[in-house]
Amino acid sequence: MENELQKKEKFAELLLIYGKLLTKNIYHRMEMFYLEDYSITEISELEKVSRNAIFESLSHGEKQLSKYENNLHIGKKNGKITVLLDELANQEDSKKRLEIIEEIKGELGYGI
Q1: CA 86 vs CA 82, 89, 99, 104: distances in Å
Q2: Is the pLDDT of residue 3 over 80?
Q3: What pLDDT is stored for residue 12 in this prediction?
Q4: pLDDT tens digit string along 90-106?
Q5: What's the pLDDT score for residue 111?
Q6: CA distance 64 to 68
Q7: Tens of pLDDT along 61-101?
Q8: Which letter does DSSP use for residue 48 in this model?
Q9: In this structure, how many other beta carbons lie within 10 angstroms of the beta carbon of residue 76?
Q10: Cβ–Cβ < 8 Å for 34, 8
Q11: Structure pTM?
Q12: Separation of alpha carbons 110 and 46, rounded Å
């Protein structure tokens, strides 16, 4: 089970990838919460709505972002490519570097 920090990092990443697919209202609230580190109370005061309205927006947005990731896997692919690029940057063996490059091309070729 992920802790609150891991959850926040996960949804911040998914928001950067899929956020524009959300409604403007939900995106704005999630952006404030996940990227700008506002609390639910602060957002509700700024928007003059109940804390529950903000909580519901965040909950709905999380479900939508999770659905997009479960179907498209862009976040997972980004993570794998990032790991491969880090490995490539530290690899001195030219044969192994070429293998990593081919693996990255394969990841890109399957749909990012």
Answers
A1: 6, 5, 14, 11
A2: yes
A3: 96
A4: 888 888 888 888 888 88
A5: 60
A6: 6
A7: 999 999 999 999 999 988 888 888 888 888 888 888 888 88
A8: T
A9: 12
A10: yes
A11: 0.80
A12: 43
As given in the structure block, the two tokens for residue 89 are 């940057």
Domain ranges (residues) in the chain:
4-72, 75-109
Q: What is the rounded distance in angstroms from the CA atom of residue 86 to the CA atom of residue 29?
A: 33
Intra-chain end-to-end CA distance of the chain, in Å:
28
Contact 65, 13 (CB under 8 A): no
Q: Into which CATH architecture does domain 4-72 fall?
A: Orthogonal Bundle (1.10)
- Flag whether pLDDT at 27 surpasses 90: yes
Residues 6+ apart with CB under 8 A from 32: 38, 42, 43, 46
Alpha carbons 57 and 88: distance in angstroms, whole number:
40
Distance CA 108, CA 90 (A): 21
